[in-house]
Predict the 3D structure of the following.
Amino acid sequence: MKKWKIEGREFNSRLMIGSALYPSPEIMAQSIKASGSQIVTIALRRQSASSLKDGNSFWDIIRELGVTLLPNTAGCHTAKEAVTTAMMAREIFDVDWIKLEVIGNQYNLQPDPFELVKATKILIDEGFRVLPYMTDDLVLAQKLADLGCTTLMPWGSPIGSGRGLMNPYSLKSIRKQFPDLNLIVDAGIGKPSDAIKAMELGFDGVLLNSAVALAQEPVKMAEAFKYAIIAGRLGFEAGAMEKRDMASPSTPTVGTPFWHQFKK
Amino acid sequence: MKISVNGEIKEFNEESLTIDKILDILEYKTGIAVALNETFIIKTKYRDTVVKDGDRLDILSPIQGG
């Protein structure tokens, strides 16, 4: 499979994986390795000096994996909070990209499109590469693309719901309207088959966390997603056959012996 | 002065302190980023940025994220 370019960086894997909710730090590290993912999402939170007295063990483990870090602004509810968090992340992680999350509803953790657009504009002006976590809204996609986003990350379904792709039509429409942008399905993936569907729609990648971290066997599930992403992408590149209404025999019919003839 | 550090009220004898000093007193080391009253403060400004009574300081460090 060809290398994948996103925001000026090249990767072999089209799977982006989160670092939260694993049963243990060891299982997190093993899962990330098994997934083959080269991009890992992380966050920032208030922490006391005493909890950091002996360093930050989580960060040490992540750094040892040698992956590219993609910080997020999870938990932010306003453009101002998200902008401040993004700037703090840029300083700590020394990266110019951010998974921009601005939550607008506490029930389904739906991104707030208005605050998202506001924060995107400010951050792009500040020199960030913004990867916005968004609803699957075509008009919102247009606004974000107009601001200069070259990657969009519409949800499949609400964060952590594992409901898969709620609205393939909307995702397909965004793909069709923005053939040159990197499109990632972010959030809602539950099973490897959901990831395959996203890739078969022509999406460039998938970002997931709970689907692996909350699986009965996270490391095995991580590996399953690794192959699902590859299968989905290859399937998309190969181009699926057209659906037909009538059956059509795949075995040649020429030379069929007499006992296979249909009775009149 | 009384200031909020990560949502907790902390009292200091001084009327004002630079961010540098506060991080020192609270024994924060590396791997952190700071916001004063919800505005990001770049590391190089810790020495010149003065924190006063009633201010809010947020000190963030990496954690797991999705």
Q: What stands out?
A: Chain A touches chain B at residues 18-22, 28, 41-49, 52-53, 55-56, 58-59, 62, 71-72, 74, 80-81, 83-85, 87-89, 91-93, 159-160, 209-210 (CB under 8 Å).
